[in-house]
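Example (one chain per record):
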Amino acid sequence: MRKSLVIALVVSLFVGIPHVRGERIRPAQVAGLFYPDSGPILREKIDGYLGEVEDQPLLGRLVALIVPHAGYEFSGKVATYAYKQLLKRQFNTIILIGPSHHRYFRGISVYGEGMFETPLGKIPIDKDLASAIIKESEIITFNPEHHLKEHSLEVQLPFLQRTSKDFKIVPILMGDQSKPFCDILSQTLTKVLKKEKKKVLLIASTDFSHYYPYNEAVKKDKIAFSIIQKMDKDELITGLAKGEVEMCGGGPAAVAIEVAKGLRADKIKLLNHANSGDVTKDFSRVVGYASFALYSTDQLNKEAQIELLKIARRSIAEYLETKKSPSFKPISALIKEDRGVFVTLTKDEKLRGCIGYTFPIKPLYEAVRDTAIKAATQDLRFPPVTKDELNKIKITISILSPIEEAKDINLIQPGTHGLYITQGWQSGLLLPQVAKERKWSRDEFLKQGCLKAGLPPDAYKKGARIHIFTAQVFDEE
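Predicted structure:
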């Protein structure tokens, strides 16, 4: 028994990570240095940031974030622009990828089990997902020592704790950020996440240029921002190798970009940027910070569009014949995801019916089936479509992006944005193409949106909530 206790003590000292009731706990290392070590004060600071920064609407499915990792006094507000995106979104697991500042090692370390602790509590590791990642490559291992003193991932956690609920994490450190290791990690994460059914978010942790005079730093960071916005992993890695770009977490950012693209992200938005000189007013030696969001507009390819149009037409035809909704076994994986959608029927270029789901409540192919039938038989503005006229009906499908609240109505673009206006129990929706077809100005679009909701035309000036979205629109040619 004594021998067993001695062995256990030696192992614990070697590992350097405390265990509580069998759970490996990675304690906070930079609380009191990078952020407050008092839970209430930390909570108040982050909540204060969240109340200060403006929301940046993303008309799409969030896939990844790139965020800074300096002390909160320096980069906390910049990071908040990214984390505010999570207040309206829920993820099961968040993969954090960061550079190793304190230990060089030739490889990649995934923290495979246990919990990370901050003054706001403990966050569990997604052991199953971590294990799946580690199994894919010999250079991806679990070595807790690599993580013990590293701050690049730890400083992200309190933000997550204030903006997300019931989530797990997979912390990943890159000991070597060269192209071969970026390639391996990108390929591994893309392969694993394409099979994953949980909702997963990627977060890459990086600061930008270090210790240049203010104006020089701004120029250098602009080059980095420009390359990142191209969403080109290899160009970013090349720029880092040549010294044209400076990012301590350039490898993690490159990996996040490549994996996000593999998960169908097709847009990137620079949410905010600054440097330490903006805070301290010492412009002699500054560090750059920026937050980006990578997201997907989830555009359907031609094959998926054709499949949905066939589903819509067959659904109407079979319902008119049998009064029953048909079942389908979709071919395209893209139409199995939950999406908001509207089906519009026209005859001789005149509206014949239009019904849809504003929010994603069921798989897209089922939503198209149901709304096609309802547009043909339940739009109270028109008599039901008959079997005899079906061959004269043209079907148009509008697939909606996630709906976001419009913070500035002057940024609404008629023809690009759709409107969803609510006040009390009343609501109304106008698809983007309506404003384009009728050549409405922004003010007219807003007035018509209010009228569609059963509100006075100026309700958008008097408390009505205005939401915007985009839509992928396609029809039978």
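Caption: Residues 404-475 form a domain with the Dna Ligase; domain 1 fold (CATH 3.30.1490.150).
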